[in-house]
Every structure is written in structure tokens, then in C-alpha cells.
């Protein structure tokens, strides 16, 4: 940020009194601009024992498979955002069952949160954001074609919990050296 969002004056990067991080501070009106992490929210959509994946029709990771997810919007809850993203990316209405995984990704200033969800019907289809949408048996996940490490980790945890018959909540950090869909 180069200019104050309040008065338009050039900002300086400095540590405000009582803070511990450099912020964009306006020397004219003293407004402090906070640049905080973005929340990505999505679902693990299930239908008759299969998981729905979307082939990305947008960057980043164009052409790779992912769970439906995207940036949370203002004025919505994380579950509302997850369901909106599921509809936008798969054309299908889902119902959130429980929060399942949350990954802090500090090097890109993001938090990824996934919910287990059930599709009401098998009415999914390609959309502007997804060139292809398909159901996969858990043993047929296209691991080498997954777009993001948060998706790969979420699906691996889901399969493990599914085998155990109990779905927990998983919280972890993904570091810069784990960027690929490990």
C-alpha cells in the first residue's frame, strides 16, 4: 500500500506505538492500515460415499483438481462462504455437516478452512470456474493432479478419519516448502 485509504496521502511503513509489526501508517491523518490474512473456505462435498472434485478452469493451478473453495466474502460466515463456493464451482447445493480441517499458510497470508458437506442431489456440472466436475471414490482420488497442498492434506486426513469411523477437526500449518500438493 502506497497511499492512505482514508485521506490519500503517502504512507510510511513503521511500527505503531503498542504494536509489534510494521504497518502502513499515514503521517497526515495517522490512520493505520492493517493487512491481515485472507480466509479460503470450502467443502469436502460427499454424495453416496464419493467425493466431488472440480477441475480448475482458472489460475492458479489451471487444469488441476481441487475441492470447491475460495475467498470468504465480507458479511458471510465461513460455512456460508464454503457453500457459496461449492455452488459457484460445481453448480450444486450442499449442506455443511462439520468443520473438518484448517491450515494456516503464513508465507501467503492465508487460512484454508474445509467443511464436510453433503450434496443434496447429483446435479453438479461444469461452471465458469471449473471445466469439469466429477465424483470420485476415495480410493480413486487423482493425487498427482491435485491443485493445492491444503486440498491434498485435507483429503488424506478425511480418508484416514473415514477408515476410523470418526471425523475429528484437524489444525496444522503449511510451510513454504510444502507448496506442492504433497
TrEMBL record:
<dbReference type="GO" id="GO:0016787">
    <property type="term" value="F:hydrolase activity"/>
</dbReference>
<dbReference type="InterPro" id="IPR015797">
    <property type="entry name" value="NUDIX_hydrolase-like_dom_sf"/>
</dbReference>
<dbReference type="Pfam" id="PF14803">
    <property type="entry name" value="Zn_ribbon_Nudix"/>
</dbReference>
<dbReference type="InterPro" id="IPR000086">
    <property type="entry name" value="NUDIX_hydrolase_dom"/>
</dbReference>
<dbReference type="Pfam" id="PF00293">
    <property type="entry name" value="NUDIX"/>
</dbReference>
<dbReference type="InterPro" id="IPR020084">
    <property type="entry name" value="NUDIX_hydrolase_CS"/>
</dbReference>
<keyword id="KW-0378">Hydrolase</keyword>
<feature type="domain" description="Nudix hydrolase">
    <location>
        <begin position="36"/>
        <end position="159"/>
    </location>
</feature>
<protein>
    <submittedName>
        <fullName>ADP-ribose pyrophosphatase</fullName>
    </submittedName>
</protein>
<dbReference type="InterPro" id="IPR029401">
    <property type="entry name" value="Nudix_N"/>
</dbReference>
Amino acid at each position: 500500500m502506497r497511499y492512505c485509504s482514508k485521506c490519500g496521502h503517502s504512507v510510511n511503513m513503521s511500527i505503531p506505538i503498542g504494536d509489534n509489526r510494521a504497518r502502513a501508517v499515514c503521517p497526515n491523518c495517522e490512520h493505520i492500515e492493517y493487512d491481515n490474512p485472507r480466509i479460503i473456505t470450502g467443502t469436502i462435498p460427499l454424495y453416496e460415499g464419493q467425493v466431488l472434485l472440480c477441475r480448475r478452469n482458472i489460475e492458479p493451478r489451471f487444469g488441476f483438481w481441487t475441492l470447491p473453495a475460495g475467498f470468504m466474502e465480507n458479511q458471510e460466515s465461513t460455512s456460508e462462504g464454503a457453500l457459496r463456493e461449492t455452488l459457484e464451482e460445481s453448480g450444486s447445493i450442499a449442506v455443511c455437516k462439520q468443520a473438518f480441517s484448517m491450515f494456516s499458510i503464513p508465507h501467503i497470508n492465508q487460512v484454508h478452512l474445509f467443511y464436510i458437506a453433503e450434496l443434496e442431489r447429483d446435479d453438479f456440472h461444469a461452471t465458469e470456474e471449473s471445466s469439469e466436475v466429477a465424483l470420485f471414490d476415495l480410493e480413486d482420488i487423482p493425487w498427482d493432479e491435485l491443485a493445492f497442498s491444503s486440498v491434498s492434506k485435507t483429503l488424506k486426513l478425511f480418508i484416514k478419519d473415514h477408515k476410523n469411523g470418526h471425523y475429528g477437526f484437524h489444525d496444522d500449518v503449511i510451510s513454504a516448502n510444502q507448496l506442492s500438493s504433497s
